Structure formats: structure tokens, C-alpha cells
Amino acid sequence: MRFASHVVLCVVASTLSTALPAPQEEPSPTVTLADGATTTLPTAASTDIAVAIDQLEQLANFAQDEVNASLEDTTTGKRMQKRGTCNRKTLAVRREWGSLSPKERKAYTTAVLCLQSKQAKTPTSLVPGVRSRFDDWVSTHINQTMTIHYTGTFLAWHRYFTWHYEQALRNECGYTGYQPYWDWAKTAQTGLEKSPILDGSDTSMSGNGEFIPDAGNIVVGGDGLSEISFPAGSGGGCVTSGPFKNMTVNLGPVSESVPGGGTISNGDGLSYNPRCLKRDLTDFVNQRFANATGVVDLIVKPQDVETFQMTMQGVPGTGELGVHGGGHYSMGGDPGRDFFVSPGDPLFYLHHGAIDRTWWIWQTLDKKTRSGAEGISGTGTFLNNPASPNTTLDTIIDLGFSAGPAVTVRDLMSTTDGPLCYIYQ
């Protein structure tokens, strides 16, 4: 199935402003923890980046403490009974890339390369371009893009997608760790190419692409939509160093934004189209749309899931890409700037680890409301076009040939209450 590229442009069709919103500073409220202790949390993001980084750490620590306490009855010291089998002994802890040891980082990238060497499960009669297990995830995302973005399943679908990718690395490729995440706030401070995650070393996720001079701006929009323009990054060509320097991207593009404006495609993106992995690391986008102030603002300001998920993805007409679009356009390149094919860059899964972590933190601020029916909003189609039924707790999430079984949204509203069992550090 092929989707017209102008539909995808709705994701970022807005005018670009040059400064983050400046929320008013408010007193921090006192919050009672699950174990009965009290703490104070920020209610507004500081525009001082150093302070905002501290706020983000405080919110993350609160979420971790809340979940840990919820897994144990502190009055008796006994583990509480959950719907699944999750307890503090079985709990997985996902960590930021820079906190991993060099050995742990290499173990992760080795497992990704292993997945890229294994045979695909998706039949080539359905997706002619698949060549590996890694491609199974890419093809699933291509086929479902228009029903998993700006929909009621956006958050839960990507949570399950990333979790199953983690499980494949562990169960099929011998990885003993857990899915790491990309802390956008840190790379916004250090610069992408100077961060452990993207410095191009053998313990990184590979680095930038070869520099292409005189590249024009990336222009998103048009077709009756207002345009958003920002500079190309500091690369643009094939990745030349690190674990993925010889990687082949097999699927796509479908709607890849390119320097100078416009998009390029290879039909529906499902045919075989081997090419190098390209990156165009763009500090401007990271610092503008995914710095600490923006992340904290996303966590503390929205009081309902509709506002939260729309702000995260970028509300059309507001001049915002959101942290979701901010991460994708920060990595740039091919397939990073293609919302259909973006899982073709292994960095995708660290980006969506961070997306899931942000949702997880936000949920813990009002767990009962945000992990139940009131924590869902939207329908089953991109911006409800065409009109479709509302997403509910009973809506099915099916990852096709990449992984299974199919589950309901209900199963994915918590990282510890259903089949999932992990937190973030």
C-alpha cells in the first residue's frame, strides 16, 4: 500500500519559531510517594537549561521510586500481586546509552548486527525487499505508519514495538542487557557528534554521515500547508565510522525529506533498494525541539493524554516538531528523515526508548488516570483521516511478521502491570 507523501507532511506542517515556550515558574507541589514519603516536583519547566536538566532527573527519579514502591507492599515487606509476573527480582532496568560501559555498548551493537544477519520472517511475496530479521521491523512500520502516528495507539504501539525488538536481540542474538535510550537533553548540551552515542567510535551507535557541502535547507510542508524550514546538518552522506559503517538499508524511501526541499520515494518502499545508511546530524533541531526545557515542559504541562501525545508529536500550526519529530530530524539522513522507514536506522530504537521513557514518567504523575481508559485518546487513523473508531483499552496491537502475539492496548498501558516488566533509570 502506498501513501501520498503530502499526508506525512502534516506531521510537521507549521511555521518554525526560534525559541522554546517560556513557561512561568511555579512552586513545586508536595507529592506523597507510594511508600508514604513526600517529595516536591516541578510544575513548570525552567528556561535555564542547567536547572531543567536537574528537573528532568528529579522527575525520572520520582517515577523510578514510585514504580519500585508499587512492586512491594511496604507495610508487610511482601511483593504485591500483579496481573503479570513482574516483581523487583524480574524487573528489567533500561539505561541511557552514556551510562553503559564500553563492553555493554558493544554487546548491544553486536546484537543489532546479528539481527541484520538473520533471515527475515516476512515473506518476500508480501514485502519483496526484506533481507533480514532487522527488516521485519522496518517493513511492519512502513505498512502501519498511517495507523500508528497521530492516532490513539501511537504511544502503546511503539512501546510494544520497541519491547519486542529488545526481546529479539535477547532471545535471537544472545544479548543479555536491555534496550538503552537516547537522552536528547544530554546531546542538546554536548552536541550530537561529541556524545558517546554518536561520536563514531566502535562503542557508539556510529556517527555522522560524510559531509556534503552546500546542502540546502530541509523544507517540510507545502501542498497547501505552511512550510517549515531548518538548516541541513553537518553530514548528509554515508556513515563512515562505528559499528554500522558497512550497514545496508534495504527498504524505502517512502517520503524522505531531502536538502533543498521536497521528498523522494521509491514507490511504496517495500521493494529491494540496497544503499548505505546515511546520517545528517543536526544540532539545531536537537537544541531547538528536544532540549531539557522542552522535555520537562512536555512532562509537567499537559494534564490529559490528548495534549501530551499531540505536543510530543508536534501540533500542526504551532511551529513545533515535538520531541518525537525533533529526534528524527536530529539524526537526519536516510532513513532517519522518513517517518515510514525510520526504523531502518538502528538509532530509531534508542529514540523510541526515550519516547517511551517520557510517557512512562508522565504516567507516574497520575498513574491511575493515565494508565487506564482516560489515558487513551484518538482514533485508528492519522489525524482521523479517514474517520475511524476511537481507540479503546480493547483495541488490538498486532506487529505482523516482526513479532507476536497480538495484544490489546490495555496490556501496554503500564510497563509493570501487564506482560511487560521494565523501568527506566
UniProtKB/TrEMBL annotation:
Lyase listed as a keyword: no
Residues of the Tyrosinase copper-binding domain: 149-166, 345-356
One GO molecular-function entry: oxidoreductase activity
InterPro entries named among the record's database cross-references: Di-copper_centre_dom_sf (IPR008922), Tyrosinase/Hemocyanin (IPR050316), Tyrosinase_Cu-bd (IPR002227)
Extent of the signal sequence: 1-19
Alphabetically ordered keywords of this record: Metal-binding, Signal
Keyword Kinase belongs to the record: no
PROSITE patterns given in the database record: TYROSINASE_1 (PS00497), TYROSINASE_2 (PS00498)
A Pfam cross-reference name: Tyrosinase
PANTHER family (UniProt xref): TYROSINASE, TYROSINASE FAMILY MEMBER
Protein name: Di-copper centre-containing protein
Native species: Pleomassaria siparia CBS 279.74
